[in-house]
Amino acid sequence: MPIITRPEPLDSSYIPDNLRHREDQIESIRGLVIDPLIAGNSSSAIIFGPPGVGKTAKCKLLARETSRVSMVYESFVTFGSIKLLLQDVLLKTGRVTLPSGTSLDYVFKALKQSQSKSGRKIVLVIDESMNAFRDENGIYNLIRAKELHSVEMSTIFVSVDNPLLYLMSGVKRMQYNPVIIKFNRYSVTELESILYNRASIALSADSYSMDILNFIAETSASSGSARVAIELLQKSAYLASHRSSSTIKVEDVRAAMAFINPYVTESKLAQLDFQDLLILLSVCISLGAKAETDVRGIRSSLDMVCEEYSVNKIGIQPLYSGLKELERIGLIEGHIVSAGPGTGTSKVVRLNDIPVSVLREKVESLIQRLS
Ligand SMILES: Nc1ncnc2c1ncn2[C@@H]1O[C@H](COP(=O)(O)OP(=O)(O)O)[C@@H](O)[C@H]1O
Ligand SMILES: [Mg+2]
Question: Has this prediction a pTM greater than 0.90?
Answer without folding.
Answer: no
